[in-house]
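Annual report, structural modelling task.

Input specification for the flavin-adenine dinucleotide complex:
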Amino acid sequence: MPKRVIIIGSGIIGASAAYHLAKAGAQVSVLEAGEAGGVATRSSWAWINASWGNPEPYFRLRLRAIADWHRLAAELPELRPQWCGGLIWDLPAEELDAYAEERRTWGHPIRRVSRSEILAIEPNLKDVPDHAYHVAEEGMVEPLAASRTLLEAASALGARILTGTPVKWLDGEDRIEGVMTDDGVIHADETVVAAGVHSAGLLDSAGISLKLTAPAGLLAHSKPGPKLLNGLVMTPGLHLRQTAEGRLVAGTDFAGADPEGDAEGLSADLQRKLEGLVKGAEGLGLDFLTVGHRPTPADGFPAIGRPRGCEGLYTIVTHSGVTLAPVLGRFAAEELLTGGRDPLLSPYHPDRPTLT
Ligand SMILES: Cc1cc2nc3c(=O)[nH]c(=O)nc-3n(C[C@H](O)[C@H](O)[C@H](O)COP(=O)(O)OP(=O)(O)OC[C@H]3O[C@@H](n4cnc5c(N)ncnc54)[C@H](O)[C@@H]3O)c2cc1C
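The model returned the following structure:
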């Protein structure tokens, strides 16, 4: 009999877990309170990278995640990640050089580029420094489309995707037997909590504590326009990318800043900076803003695994979920179905003292 697995949440994390579990033969049901595709996911800047975040073990996980994006895109070409590369000069020059040197010693393909090389990579930039760094292997993806593609692929493998189906609580005590919904209990052999910022509340219903934060991040989206950027651009106070449909998406950094009640002021500032940086962006104009909340375990690293003392339960909560989704979904499926836990996950057990 295939294992019956419930996944709570259809963001990019739940969607990846659903795809990998269904592919490995599990009988999967995804329960989603709202629409398919996630909440944080749809407001993400969606940079696929190993540049952000220390220490080295986390870098290694992110590097594996990039390899897994390539594997997943070969399996599901509709995912269409763009391996467009990223230009970075968002730190003071000395700090930037030290950062790049550390990464190089870890084997990161980060390359110092001169002013003329920067302009060869991004000819429409107006104001560039004497040098920056470039990582050609980084990329981006349209995050909502990607999570929906994963859900469709899971569905084609037999998974049920139930939208408009909020889970009220986890059902069971020492062993989770399923979840309570408006229509009663749905039973499962395994329940995966991948509910983004709402994961802590659901785990709490089974007496499990997980310290999460949910920082807000504003991104400003321009109207669609002609291709102005070839890749991602990370400058001080302005991170910028152009979507597949031609919108420039700008944040104070990739994670966006908390608008703190002045979203208009913050977006006007971003608009001014982007017009100052990119030739041709002047006439585009702002179309809309998004403010997303990043599901972020309190120490800033992923929480993935079986909370101890409660069988039948697994959780995956993380920032950088767009980067990490392919690898975390695959590792979760392996652990749930075979019991094997990849050594790259060693630091990220949800029971670690910083999270409980
Ligand atoms: C502004 C911003 C910028 C970011 N930039 C990047 C970036 O550049 N690179 C990167 O890798 N990551 C980035 N991230 C982080 C990344 O987007 C998230 O880590 C990822 O989207 C989390 O996915 P998720 O599936 O865990 O959560 P979500 O997308 O929030 O999905 C969780 C789902 O669970 C559902 N749910 C919640 N409670 C229940 C319930 N009780 N019952 C049923 N369903 C429920 C919700 O409705 C939701 O659909 C960014 C995030 C933000 C907000």
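The chain has a mean pLDDT of 96.
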